[in-house]
Amino acid sequence: MSTDLTITHLILNASPVVQLVIALLVFASVSSWSMIFDRMRVLKSAVRAADEFEGRFWSGGDLAELYRQIERETDEESGMASIFRAGFREFARLRTKGHKDPMAMVHGAQRSMRVSLNREVDRLEHHLSTLATIGSTSPYVGLFGTVWGIMNSFTALGNVKQATLALVAPGIAEALIATAIGLFAAIPAVVAYNRYSNDVERLNNRYDDFVEEFATILQRQAVA
């Protein structure tokens, strides 16, 4: 490959608009990879925490003792444990106040658990919308850089008497680099968004099932 057509040389000698497009795409790519690794860590931790809590919850132990253990462990419990804590706390509060209607206590606990569930899903979905935006817009940003570079290359032909491939090749090459970087930024973001959206949906279903199962347990305790 000629040294005049190396990627570094082409980028450094590209037009300011193409250089700006490439810089934006590189920034988007670096940002998306940072978000991808962050979501990977958060979602793996959420799945692990859900598995651990379900093991403790369905072990047959006393729920009041489990609640006290969770309260002692941390003030920032997240995931299924936070949903359990919100529901049990509200149920105990209503029972302490002497509510006579069992279903009112159960519905109050369910509302608290739903609020906690929605808060947890929002936490898990953090950055996903940004990944979707990067995945959907990066190819078009790269295409804009490509069109601009090719337009400049053909405009330059108007100033010469004889057009040759050597005259337009660098401009077209630098333009195609913008498209390549746009795809490089978009593809991982799209793949990660689809994967993590599915993971969040599966966790949301687990949380939702737990809310219904725990509400049934609380209903039995309320009428006992």
UniProtKB/TrEMBL annotation:
One Pfam assignment: MotA_ExbB
Any one annotated GO CC term: plasma membrane
Domain spans labelled MotA/TolQ/ExbB proton channel: 77-208
BP-aspect Gene Ontology terms: bacteriocin transport; cell division; protein import
Domain of life of the organism encoding this protein: Bacteria
Location(s), subcellular: Cell inner membrane; Cell membrane
Keywords: Cell cycle, Cell division, Cell inner membrane, Cell membrane, Membrane, Transmembrane, Transmembrane helix
Key word Cell cycle present: yes
Protein's membrane topology: Multi-pass membrane protein
Keyword Transmembrane recorded: yes
Transmembrane stretches, start-end: 17-37, 128-151, 171-193
Entry function: Part of the Tol-Pal system, which plays a role in outer membrane invagination during cell division and is important for maintaining outer membrane integrity.
Subunit and partners: The Tol-Pal system is composed of five core proteins: the inner membrane proteins TolA, TolQ and TolR, the periplasmic protein TolB and the outer membrane protein Pal. They form a network linking the inner and outer membranes and the peptidoglycan layer.
Family the UniProt entry places it in: Belongs to the ExbB/TolQ family.
Name of the protein described by the UniProt record: Tol-Pal system protein TolQ
Origin species: Candidatus Thiodiazotropha endolucinida
Gene symbol of the encoding locus: exbB_4
